[in-house]
Amino acid sequence: MKILSIETFSTADVGLVRVRTDDGAQGWGQLSPYHADIAATVLHRQVAVHALGQDISALSLLDDLLDRVYEKEYKFPGSYMCRALGGLDTAIWDLHGKLQGKSVCELLGGTPRPIRVYASSMKRDITPAQEAERFLRLRDRHGYDAFKFRIGSECGHGRDEWPGRTEAIIPAIRTALGDEADLLVDANSCYSPDQAIEVGRMLQANGICHFEEPCPYWELDWTRRVAETLTLDVTGGEQDNNLALWKHMIESRVVDVVQPDICYLGGIARTLRVARMAQAAGLPCTPHSANLSLVTIFTLHLMGAIENAGPYVEFSIEQADYYPWQYGIYSEFPVARDGKVQIPQGPGWGVQINPSWLEHADYRISRIE
Fold first, then answer.
1. 283-300 confidence digits (pLDDT tens)
2. How many angstroms separate the CA atoms of 98 and 355, rounded?
3. Other C-beta atoms lying within 10 Å of the C-beta of residue 355
4. What are the backbone angles phi and psi of residue 37, rounded to the nearest 5°?
């Protein structure tokens, strides 16, 4: 069973990939969101040329295929290569699931089931009172018992989104939701180590359990210092796509919880390598899945199978005002009930790609003539 064609359907925001084989099998995957049209170009120019004609009759061949493509393009080891590889990888997992009549979760050794999620806010242009009200409303509607909100400013060099917001929102959310809710925060690379430690102690005093990307993510020593000083979990890794860097991060305990992004890192197979490295080091894995494109579907399947899965899956609460492009891509859109989301149970990813979405996307194909 060899790859006959690789097709992309992309917009600037998100792109889908269809892989077909010479025996008529097919599977759907997704390029990483954000500038997905560029990732689609990379896929056709630098991935398809090495992947077409390759044997994918067994999933055990996938790691070698991904490594072969990556090494053939060894002068381009960056983000877009991995974003393109992820489209190929996730389509191949879907293809095998459909051939075997199993969900990807089952292919990975797990069981599709309802899995706990945390309600993940992406907004900083929201007051503490508005965020608290939103969380309470969503708790009552969907049963969430874990919530993540934003502090500081994105790559903010120590600045808050507006003066005093962080100091106000931390106790406001805790007071509104009470002691029974698990609370997480994301600083998106805002602070110096000293600032992060100061903010972290405020978080600890308010029972926050998860402090994500406290320092610029590329400053590994800064983040390690924060993790060594604080008692709550310091987490990160969503931006990182180099497996050698991941090995260093895990071995040197830069974070307490690893958070790879399946689409940024290059797909399920490469994310499994990170999860297994973390497991060997005794670290939990809670991947980044910040929108409701297929990345959340991929993450649900993975988290239903890995042994060192963290206690919940990230589940965005943002809607069309923030992520207008996440809608209409596929059916069986996930919904939280009682604070959990069902891992899709059908073959492959267990969702159906919407033909109407494909009709409005830019189309390209690479194939064996």
1. 999 999 999 999 999 999
2. 18
3. 7
4. -65, -35
